[in-house]
Every structure is written in C-alpha cells, then in structure tokens.
What we know:
Layout: H1 18-25, E1 33-35, H2 46-55, H3 64-78, E2 85-88, H4 90-102, E3 108-113, H5 118-125, E4 129-134, H6 145-151, E5 157-161, H7 173-182, E6 188-192, H8 205-209, E7 220-225, E8 238-241, H9 250-253, H10 261-270, H11 274-294, E9 298-299, E10 306-310, H12 314-323, E11 326-330, E12 339-343, H13 347-364
Parallel strand pairs: 1-11, 3-4, 3-5, 5-6, 6-7
Antiparallel strand pairs: 2-8, 7-8, 9-10, 10-12, 11-12
Amino acid sequence: xxxxxxxxxxxxxxxxxxxxxxxxxxxxxxxxxxxxxxxxxxxxxxxxxxxxxxxxxxxxxxxxxxxxxxxxxxxxxxxxxxxxxxxxxxxxxxxxxxxxxxxxxxxxxxxxxxxxxxxxxxxxxxxxxxxxxxxxxxxxxxxxxxxxxxxxxxxxxxxxxxxxxxxxxxxxxxxxxxxxxxxxxxxxxxxxxxxxxxxxxxxxxxxxxxxxxxxxxxxxxxxxxxxxxxxxxxxxxxxxxxxxxxxxxxxxxxxxxxxxxxxxxxxxxxxxxxxxxxxxxxxxxxxxxxxxxxxxxxxxxxxxxxxxxxxxxxxxxxxxxxxxxxxxxxxxxxxxxxxxxxxxxxxxxxxxxxxxxxxxxxxxxxxxxxxxxxxxxx
Length: 378
C-alpha cells in the first residue's frame, strides 16, 4: 500500500527557526535573531495572552460558542454578515476551504510566480492543476490587471496577493475589479491580504460588501489572518471573507471546529487590541525605511512586514548571516536565487540585520549586481 502519486506536489519550505539552527550549529539559541518567517516583532497581543490563560481551563469543551463569538466580531469589523466569515486553521486552512467549495477534479488555478506555494499545493490536494502568471523582477514585481489577464485561460480560481509575498508589492481595487469583470462567470478571484494591515491600500472586502462606489460581487473572496499584525502565528487562526451567495457552503466544506477554543478566545481579545496593532504597524514602517536606506544592496519597496533584498547569491549570503546569528529567508525556493527576504524586527533586531548583511556583502566583495559593494541602489 502506497500513497497516491504525489510527484507533482511541491513541499512547502518554511523559514528556519532559532532552535533548529542553534542545534545545527551547536550554539546558544539566545544569541540568534530570527527574521525569516514574517512574525510579529512584538509577539502576541498582551490581551490575547491574558485570554489564553483565562481560557486554558475550558479546553475540554468544543469551541462552539467561542467560534460563533469570533465569527460575529470579525464580521462586525468588516461590516459583513456573520455567515460570510469562514474561520479556519490559519490562512492556509481558508485556502483549503475555498478549494473544496470551488474545484472539481481537473480544474486549474492561476497563481503568481513568485508566490505563496500553498495556493498550488491546495489545488493539487483537491485534484486540480496550477498555471502561473509572472511578476517580473525587472518591473519591480508590479501587479496590474493586464499581467494577470494575459496569462488567464479560464482557470476556476485566480489568486492575487496584496501585499505580495515575497516582494511586498500591492494591487489596487480597480485592478481587482477589472480582473473579476474580465474573467469567466465561474472564476473566483481570491485576494490574499495576509499582510493587509501593513499596507496603505484599501481592502478588496469593499468589492464583496459593495462599498466605496463598488457593486457587491459574488466572484471575489478575501483571505486574512491573525498570524501577522496580531502576532498569533502559533495558534493558526485565519479566515476567508466570501460573497453572501457562498455563505451556506461553509458548513459543507469546513473541518468541524477548525479554530480551537484557545485560538478563538485569543482572536476575540486580539481583534480589540488596536494599540498592539498600531505599535506593530509603526515598528514595521520604521524597519522598512531603515533597511531601504541603510542596506548596501537593492531593496525593493514593500507594503508588507518584510523587505526583499537582491544580494547576488542568496544561499551563501543567508548562510553567512545565519553563522553570525541572524536568520533570514533564502528566496531560492520562491524562484529568486539572488534574493533574501528580511522580516521587519524591533529597532535593535533590524539594526543588527542591516549591520550583519552589510558586513557579509563587504566580506564577499560584491554588491547585489555582482560589482563592487556600494550604496543602496533602491
């Protein structure tokens, strides 16, 4: 007995953790800084930590009430109906729900390249296939309707990422609306806004709810998460916001009690903790500016809680930084072997990352274009 043929499936490669790297190098974990997984530099919302402690004694019960309460709170935040919120085990869980609700065997999805591997993984799990549209480095990974539509060929789901991971570029609502207008009636446009709190752009939820001069649509869905701005990555809590016509499908595709009691209680507390989000967003803006100004290599503008840096050869640079105690993301797995991604840390973490990277680049004697190291050309 063997599993089905998984040869077309690409395994997701997560950023490396401090404990893993410290064990490998035989070093004290406290000497490392991890800036590889776009986690919150300030940790979880303090209100969420209190809520987890308070809820610890109730984990013997299924989270029916907490699930309903969090659904209502998220719906209120976005001014949509409760049944338009599909809570999930992280944003990837919400992607799976949309795949289950949408894909028939053999259906294709259209995804950005480079981009989040799980879009394609979920499609293949559900016996679909994957096509790609390219976000070009030479165009600074810019996103517009024509880039997507030129590659479109009737796919059942079109994924947009705003802000895009790993570049940090965004796509405006008019372009999303144009893509939805010009794709087939049975195509769902999914806008992944996992990093939306860090971007100065309007959410595509306006296209679902019919606000800001747009008519309400039944062919757009939005993905959001508590992992980034709210600092709850370890609890795995995300959600999809879907058209009203889709609401009934959730009960038929979701995993029973997909969001745990602790996750729901933490989410309820975190969604009200505006001060923590504001502090996080301010720290990210400061870190992005610092890295753009002070790194001696090309740093692309970003609306996420990370920046993409052209270092010429990603793997040796990432390994050298890791040896010096700063863990960053080698973007070779994204198809960008010249680039690393650095998460926005606290001011001291960001300064250490900048100093370490500049030292590594100087030691290698190369800038991001293979020439002599100089000032940032971004």
